[in-house]
Write a structure and sequence with these properties.
single chain; three-stranded mixed beta sheet; two-stranded antiparallel sheet; 4 helices; rod-shaped
């Protein structure tokens, strides 16, 4: 009775070992294939980028509106400080009494033009466009970089499993 029991245990272990070894050999030969859904990743990136830009862009535009007048004034002043304006191949000299009035008018005109430009920007439309471009970029990069990529995984010292990456 004891001998039959131990014989059964031994045969069971042997069969289990053979099945595991066969599975390991097949796995080492064929490897694993990991599929990355580039469209799914791209859609998630698109949604996150869209949301983030819709949150951040209005504040950034407001900050630009606030920084526009002093920035324009500083640039106009610096360019007119030399007393000359380059118009094509000709340098026009600006008389000193006229500089301050020209500087004021240019600053007002350029600030208003910049403000109108910023007012025309639609944060929602910009967010949608940028998010779509981010999606396309992510999908293209994932497909280009990961398609056919192979790495070797060694879970135990005696078993090396090739892992093939593909995209869809």
């Amino acid at each position: 009775m004891r001998r039959g029991f131990w014989w059964g245990v031994g045969v069971g272990w042997l069969l289990t070992t053979l099945v595991v070894a066969g599975f390991a050999a097949g796995l080492a030969h064929r490897g694993l294939t990991v599929t990355v859904n580039a469209a799914g990743v791209g859609a998630r990136v698109e949604a996150e980028v869209r949301e983030r830009i819709r949150q951040e862009l209005p504040g950034a535009l407001q900050s630009m509106r606030e920084q526009l007048p002093p920035t324009v004034a500083r640039e106009v002043s610096a360019r007119l400080a030399v007393g000359k304006v380059n118009v094509g191949p000709v340098d026009l000299e600006i008389p000193a009494p006229m500089r301050s009035e020209i500087e004021r008018r240019l600053t007002v005109a350029l600030t208003e033009a910049g403000g109108r430009f910023l007012d025309q920007l639609d944060p929602v439309q910009a967010a949608d466009r940028i998010a779509r471009e981010a999606r396309v970029l992510v999908e293209q990069r994932l497909s280009a970089e990961l398609q056919g990529y192979q790495l070797m995984l060694q879970p135990v010292p005696w078993l090396t499993v090739p892992v093939n990456v593909r995209t869809r």
